[in-house]
Structure formats: C-alpha cells, structure tokens
Amino acid sequence: MTKEDFFTLVNQIQSSDYYREPLAFAIAKIDRGQKDPDKILQATYAFINWQENFGSAAIFQKALAEAGQTISQESEAVYEVTRAFVDSAIAMCSPWLEEAVGEAHKNVQMIKFLSKLDEEELADFRVVFLFEDAAPKSVESVYLKLYALSTGKAPLRSVNLNGAFGVLPNVAWSGNTPIELDWLRENELELKMTGQYPVIDVVDKFPRFLQHIIPADNTRILDASKVRMGAQLAAGTTVMPGASYINFNAGTLGPVMVEGRISSSAVVGKGSDIGGGASILGVLSGTSGNPISIGENCLLGANSVTGIPLGDGCIVDAGIAVLEGTKFFVTQEDFGKIKEANPEWQASYKEIFKGRELAGLNGLHFRQDSTTGQMKVFRSNKEVKLNEELH
C-alpha cells in the first residue's frame, strides 16, 4: 500500500455507512481490580486525539469492523483490543510504519507497540471512542476527558463530567498503582504479617495530576498531592506546598503563583497570585452554581475567600471574604474611577454594593476598614506583577 492508497482508503471509510466522526479517541491501558478482574480501576493514555487525526479514527473503525465489532451508535464506545484488530490496523498503516517515531504519527506508533504484545498482554488494552460530549459511562471515557483537560486539548469547563464520581471506583493509590479496597481488607493479615502491605499515598477516585501528565518545562509542582488529575496548568504556573490545591476541571491560563486553593471549575488568569491559604470557591461552595474566573494580574491575599468572578488587576486583601452577598461601601469618587475602568458597567451610584453587583469588574481593591470593620471597595492603584525569574 502506498501513501496515496492510504488516503484513498480513508476517504472510502469516511464515506461508509458505519463510520462515525468522533469527538475524541485513543487507546488506553487499563488497571484491573485485584479481587474483581472485571472491575476497571484506572485507564492510562500515552496520548489522546481530541477533535483531530480523523484519518486514524477511520482506520481504527475499519479495523474494528474487520475484527467483527459493530461501531456503536451511543455517545461513547469501549472495545477490547484483539489480535485481529491490531493486524488489520497495522496492514492499513504500513506506509507510515518507518516514519512513526518520536513525535510523528503517534497513532501508528501505538499500533506498532501493540503488534509486539501477546494475546494475554493485549487483554489489558482498550480502543475508546467519544462520539458526543455526554455524561461519561465508563472509567475509560472519564479518564479520556480528564486527559483532555489536563493536556490542554479541551478548555476548562468545556467538558461534560456529570456523574463521573459515580463511574470511578474509590481506590487506594500506592504510587501509580490503584489497589482495590476490598482486596486490601481481605488480605490485610497476610500482607501485614509478611511485610508486604503497600505504602498507601491516598484513597480517592481521582489520581494525582503528575501520575499521568508531564508538565511544561517551566511549570513547578512542589508537592504532587496538591494537583488532582483533570486540573489544567498553563506553562509557568508554580504550585507551592502547604495550603495550595488545584482540583479537577480547574486551573490556570498562564504563569500563576498558587499558594492557595483553586476549587473545581475555578479558572485563574495569567500573572495572578493566589496567596497562602487563599480560597477560590467552587460551584458547590456558595457561588449559586456560577463558576469563578479570576482575571489577569490579580492578587488574592493570604487566607482570603473569593466567591465572585474578578476582572483584571483586582486585589483582595488578606483575611477577608468577597462573597455574592457581602456588602461593600464605595465612595462617589471611587465609583467614578471604577466606571472609568469599566465603561460597559451599567450602574448608578449608591453607597453600598453587594458583591454580586461587582462581579467581573476590572481594577477593584477589596479591603476591610481596620477601625470600623466596614467592607470597602476602591479603584486599585497597585500593579500586581509576578517575578519573571520564578515563572
């Protein structure tokens, strides 16, 4: 087969009755339960295809069809990798086999790798297709979506993860190995008495980010437990130890200093500093279900709480809570300056504004009067700037 033959074949497959263009697809290695081998504990992807490489998707679907599989009409599909599938796929990919090294033709590289495995080894691999962004139904599809977020192939808050907690099993993690809790309970005596009881790092449904993702060169994570799989860290982000944490479907859009908590669905713009112990609320934490975005070059002071979206160049002083219902005093002079910085803000002057009325505005400085205890908001006159040498 020549390369021209390959492209002709792809066009024929894509015109066939069985072909479905996927949202995403990939080949996963699965970890099975130690007690129940049919229970999938984790799915690992060397790489994923997200709205890309449709030629490889066509080849995989034809190989599945030739191996006796029916292309699903559901929102997702998970297929066992069989020798027949691998042999069919590698024959169709023959024009690219020599070129499939390094960063080139990753899907072909995967087929080449699978071709070297025996039947028993192949039993732990799956071909996974997502045809729609529906609520995930399998462990494999949840992990594919988490990879899409953590690799930056899908924007934060753009992927349907409804019901993911119900799909994923709760397991004990020892390094990169998930261990079934029931198996640990049943074998506790023998494992402990023989000195074979594993070191358990965490018990959770989600693994840690660094168990699956290689970050950008200038991204630093000083404690692996502080970032959950499904988080997204832009290049230049620094996650310090201590009170920091970044949940799944949350993260940064550029260089950010993280010493506080970025809850699920919260997104932080480049150049911002999340101070020690500062907390950005998630959608289940008092934001009326509204996800929080923090703009660029903002500073959230130590131990502050932010429960409204902030625009660019905002400051929240240490130790205060900026919530939807918090009442803030504004002078007429500062109101004018805030309006000037936010010309689209349709508001008339009044002395007291609730936090929700200030959501998303640029250049705000939230603070508490240390004499009266009154919460106030000013037009910020300070520039937040990260140390470029550290990011």
Automatic annotation (TrEMBL):
HAMAP family: DapD_type2. It comes from the Bacteria. The keyword Transferase applies. This is 2,3,4,5-tetrahydropyridine-2-carboxylate N-succinyltransferase. SUPFAM superfamilies: Trimeric LpxA-like enzymes (SSF51161). Keywords: Acyltransferase, Amino-acid biosynthesis, Cytoplasm, Diaminopimelate biosynthesis, Lysine biosynthesis, Transferase. Pfam families: Hexapep_2 (PF14602), THDPS_M (PF14789), THDPS_N (PF14790). GO terms for biological process: diaminopimelate biosynthetic process; lysine biosynthetic process via diaminopimelate. GO terms for molecular function: 2,3,4,5-tetrahydropyridine-2,6-dicarboxylate N-succinyltransferase activity. The keyword Cytoplasm applies. Residues 168-208 form the 2,3,4,5-tetrahydropyridine-2,6-dicarboxylate N-succinyltransferase middle domain.
